[in-house]
Every structure is written in C-alpha cells, then in structure tokens.
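Protocol step 4 of 6.
Sequence for Sigma-54-dependent Fis family transcriptional regulator (Tistrella bauzanensis) entered exactly as in the expression construct, tag removed. Do not edit the line below.
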Amino acid sequence: MPSDILIVDDEDDIRHLVAELLRDEGYTARTARNSDEALGEVAARLPDMVLLDIWLDGSRLDGMEILAEIVREHPGLPVVMFSGHGTIETAVTAIRDGAYDFIEKPFKSDRLLLVVRNAIEQAKLRREIADLKKRAGIDAELIGGSAAIRQLRHTIERVAPTNSRVLVTGPAGAGKEVAARRVHMQSKRAEAPFVVLNCAIMTPDRVEAELFGAEPGALGPETPRKLGLFEQAHSGTLFLDEVSDLPLETQGKVVRALHEQRFTRLGGERPIEVDVRVVAATNRDLGTEIQAGRFREDLFYRLNVVPLRVPSLKERRDDIPDLARHFMVRAAGLSGLPARSLGADALAVLQAGEWPGNVRQLRNVIEWLLIMAPGDVQAEIRAEMLPPELGAGAPALVNPSEDGEIMGLPLRDAREVFERNYLKAQVARFNGNVSRTASFVGMERSALHRKLKSLGINTSS
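Step 5 output, structure tokens:
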C-alpha cells in the first residue's frame, strides 16, 4: 500500500507542488493550510508522515506547536519541518523537539524525496522492531510436509494476494495465528502492520476502546486520545483471535465497520476512514454459537468469506519430527543452550501421543526437554527421558514406567504383550494406515493385517 503523507503549508502553490511531486512518486498525499486542518487530518486518519511548515500565516498554532502536539499524541509519527526563514538554530530546535529532519526552502525535489523516503523507512523499521519484540517466540512458518499442511499452504497462497476476509478455524494450540500471519505476509499488505486483538482476554468494557479508540477524556478525566486497533492496522491486517468471545454489542459495531470501512472513536463524532483487511480465528463452532444467540449471523458471513481450517496435531503426525527439530533449534537459539538431537524412539513416542494441546503443547515439551532432559548435551534424547505425562495417553510400550509388568510373565505371554503394545504404538503413529505401518515395521501388509486382527488391534484403514 502506498505511504500516506500529510503536507501542511499556508502557501497554496507549495502544497499543490509537493503533493503532485509525491503522487508522481507513488505516494498518497493530503494537504492542510493551518493547524486546525492539520490536526483534524491527523485525527481523521493517522498519516505515515507529516511535512510541516514552521511559519503558518493565519493559523491558531505555528509549526513548532503542531510538532509538539503530534509528538505528544503520536510519538512514532515522523515529522519533517520546512521553512523559508530557517536558521541553524531553528533546525536544531525542531530536531531536538522531535522532528525527523529539517529542510530549508526553496528545496530541491531530489533532496525532499530522499528525506521522505528515509523518514518513512526509519518509522517502518521502528514498527518492525517493536512488532518483533511483541511477538518474540511466535513462529510465522507452517512447518511440515503432511497432506493437511500442504493443502493449508496451497489455500493460503491463493487467498493471500486478494483482499478477501478469512476465517481461520481449528483447535486451540493448532497454529491459527501462524496461518493468519502467513496470509498477511503473502499479501500485498505485507509491508503494512499486522495487528492482533485476542478477544478472549478482553473485558467487555475494554474491547470497544481497543478496537475503535477513544477521544481525549472519553475513558476518564484527562485521558489522552487513544488510537484503536482498526486505525493502527490501516493499510494492513487486523487479526481478531477467538472472535467468538466478542460481546454481542461490539459484534454489531464490527459489522458496521467492516461494511463501511469507517467508524467513530468512543466519545467522538467524526467518522474515521480506514483500509483494513480482517482475518478472524476461533476454536468454536460458530454455527452452534449463532443458534445459541451468542454470535451474530451477519458478522459470521462477513468474516467467513474464505474459510481456512488448521488441522490438529493428531491429524498431521507425520509433521511431528520436523516440528520437534524446528522447536529444538528455536528454543536453543532463544535460551543460548546447545540444541540436542532426538532419538528415533523418542520421536516414535512423540508421534504416538494424543497431544490435546496440539502444536503449542509439543513446543512446550521440546523446550522442557532442552532444559531438563538428563545426560550429556551431545547425547540423543531417548524415550525414557520424555516427560511422564506423555505416556499417559500412549500405548503401554511407549510408557517406560509400565514395562516392568512384562518381567512377571512367561516368555510367550510377554512377547504377545510386547507385540500388541509395539504395534499399537506404530499404528497410532501412522494414523491407522496399515500400509505405512507395514512398511516401517518390515512386514507384508497382508501379514501385518492378520497379526493386528489376532492381537485385537483395530485400525482405521
């Protein structure tokens, strides 16, 4: 999306000349002739930067006073001052008070464009650094080569370049935010902000102010103006995580904002126009929520233009080794500890697990192993080093604490217990696929099928 620049100058010719120059370079440009118009434009929609004349005839505030207002209300907004009556002292004062740079009139076009480009790039870099700090530890890659993940990637590649709204569904911890970030990063809005609201942790009295912002004093005496997330996401993507937790009254206001692409801040009267793509996510069945009267049907249809379903970890067991290695490298990088390798038996246990917490739970287990697994850091992590709770939902073979019962059985019975537990674990590992299980354990498919039937092990295929 093109950067939006506000030009503030009392001379008509200068305003129009600079605006046309910027538009020729692919920017969008707005103009204002005095302080009231300038601050009104900033309040209506925050620009990406401001070009501000110091001396403004007939204006309530001069350029330096407008700069002070902008720095106080919007400290990240770059402002470049220019003046035909500038001195070194004036330039130093402007930069000391928060301006990005100072240009003396008459200015050369190349000089102006260079300063504009640098100011916007520096502001963008600051936002990216702040975003990285906020989401430290959040992955933005869809790891794995399973059919389910390949299909998800394919759908994202098709929908991302469009402006269509997307509804991401899937169980908790499966990676819905990762999918949403991929949509944003592969879209035409990738250079603009990706703003997140977790609706599940917002109290009803806070959520509207977070979404739509508030005018000074609206949230309490002497409270400053608050920019809502819709404004912060202008030209980018707003991700509404766990959207089913939005209060019903707020849902109606979101419907209107999506329809009109504008809204009013709390305590305000002037509509704020924005260009925002909304991606929403939920782990609930919104059809059931609609029937129960907890979710608006019109909001559902506005959000569910393109549905994306993120599979549970049990549906993509093939990806567990890749995910485990990825999380190990990532955890090692964040902690400063050397990464450890996972033995084949440990990976088999991980693949056979139930994983109610999905990918998030696997990530936590790998981080625990990096820190807590015994033995030399160069040694492989074995099955017996895994957290005990992993064995609770897995076949007995992969739960080392239960192997002792075999020692009290005759050889023939012990062998049958071992075979049953071993094959249960392998069948679970391959999601009930007999052909793949047979290939791994080194048996003919028909022979394995007979063995499973004799041991009373059910399969899905």
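Step 6, annotate. The chain has 18 helices and twelve strands.
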